[in-house]
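G-protein coupled receptors family 1 profile domain-containing protein: structure, please.
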Amino acid sequence: MSYILPCCEASCLILASIDRVLVTSPNAGTRRRSTRRLTIISMIVICSFWAIFHIHTLIFIQIVQYGTNYFICTFQPGTYTTFISYYSLVVTGCLPPTLMAIFGCWTVKNIRQIRRVRHNASTRGTGTVVIGTQHTLQSKDQQLIRMLFIDILSYIICKYPGTIMLIYQQITQYANKSDERQQIEQAILELTVFLYFVENSIGCYTNMIASKAFRVELKRILLKLVHYFRF
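Here you go.
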């Protein structure tokens, strides 16, 4: 689960980024592809893929006993450990932030195009006939985009130090290290692990700050729960 859940989280953020690209597209046909049905199917397929893909961890993990009723799961030394290191570096470290940044920039580009079209339409003189309707972002769409950008930024800030630390470990894995250096690296590693899981716990609070609609909906749900348990 420690491998499946991070991959599913990153994949869902990437899917959300793609959805925002579709929603903000100036092309009406592209916008129509952003549907709830497609989103649900994509999430099910992605999560199922990661669950099946990580079956190898059940096979190549070995359980080591360090004491009475004290067991630790470790990777089999050798090629598999090297594979897991580079796999974590690419799949959960470098690839998700890169894709999020690409789709985030794409969304910003679409938003600027929409604003440019609206500005040009507002500055036209009379006598111009406009066929069709202009695409404008609704307030909820704007808030969702803002929430997504904050989630992506939080993901990069919290997850990337762990990726950098993993790269450092791969580069210096054969270097002779003093005890002091090992202690410093261990302290930094524990800090990056702590920061890695911070992102998973601040999503609700960042969404509350970024979106009024989220605050209203959360308040409605909490009041409904209070009313339900009271009566």
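Notes: The longest strand covers residues 61-67.
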